[in-house]
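This part of the workshop introduces the protein records we will be handling. The structure tokens are whole numbers drawn from a learned vocabulary of backbone shapes. The record below serves as our worked example for the rest of this section.

===
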Amino acid sequence: MKLSVKDRIVFAGLYPKNYNLIEGTLLKDIKQKVEITQDEIKDFEIKTTQVDKITRFNWNTEKKTDIEIVFTEMEINFLKERVKELDKEKKLNDEIIDLAQKIIKA
């Protein structure tokens, strides 16, 4: 799945607060795959700013930031179910809708 810096930053919006052992294992593996590295912070010039207690992320949009991340079938199924849960609960928002659509299409 091709993910942008924004996708990877907002990925945490998909994570449940509570989970069982299997879900926790899948989440741990997913987090390792989507985390942004120190080299990427430097290369993409990622910076954060605080506005009214909200953290905003900015990066150099002229640089190509998309990377291909390979998820296992179990991880994809977990993510799809999570998106379906958030959709049913009407908890999707503008920040994660593009990512949610990518996951559903995977």
Observations:
- The chain has a mean pLDDT of 94.
- The chain is about 50% helix and 15% strand.
- The helical segments are 5-10, 21-34, 38-43, 73-88, 97-105.
- Strands lie at 2-3, 47-51, 54-58, 67-68.
